[in-house]
Amino acid sequence: MRVVGGDAGPHDRIVRMQRSVVTVQQADFDLAAEVAALRDGDTQVGAVAVFVGTMRDRNDGAQISAMELEHYPGMTESAIEAMVSEARRRFGIRGARVIHRVGTLLPGDQIVLVAVTCAHRREAFQACEFLMDYLKTQAPFWKKETTPEGARWVDARQADDAALARWGLELDNAG
Fold first, then answer.
1. Distances (CA, A) of 142 to 28, 48, 72, 137, 155
2. Does any domain span residue 7?
């Protein structure tokens, strides 16, 4: 947080350290700029863990030429913010930045950014992985892939449910 027209007081610093930013957008993102903004001004950060998901050109044995991502505006952001709050409770993260793209994406495009700051690396890595596992199973997104045979919706996977279960959260999205 930058304070214009004066110095930041202790209360401003606490607000900055508790901040998380969740965005669902069509536009691409700048990884370096997002990480720099997340770290800005917090000298208690000892670790930054980052995950960037990109679109592959193959899935389940088929060539993929494009993917359409859809979401429920407002509901999706609220669900992700709840995930970040849970990560803060479990891992003591100092800050988080989650960006998930929607719309039409092509192979090689960035899809998702999850970045967290913590005092220590172990918690940063765990929080980042927890948020990705949660995003894959609980965030209300729908994916439709374009293959040579036509468009197909992507179903939930048992492996994603299993990844979430190791955090003590049992679901059956793939059922």
1. 18, 29, 9, 11, 9
2. no
Q: How far apart are CA 13 and CA 83, in angstroms?
A: 23
**What CATH number did the domain enclosing 35 receive?**
3.90.1170.40
Q: Give the whole-angstrom CA distance, residue 173 versus residue 12.
A: 41
Tokens of 45: 């950060």
Please report where in the chains the tokens 């039409």 appear, as a residue.
104
**pLDDT, tens only, 114-140:** 999 999 999 999 999 999 998 988 889
Instruction: Provide the domain limits for residue 136.
Output: 20-165
Nearest to 110 by CA among 40, 171, 26, 173: 26
Residue 47 lies in a domain: yes
Q: What's the domain count of the chain?
A: 1
Model confidence over 72-114: pLDDT tens digits?
A: 999 999 999 999 999 999 999 999 999 999 999 999 999 999 9
Which residues contact residue 67 at a Cβ distance below 8 angstroms, ignoring those fewer than 6 apart? 55, 104, 105, 106, 143, 144, 145, 146
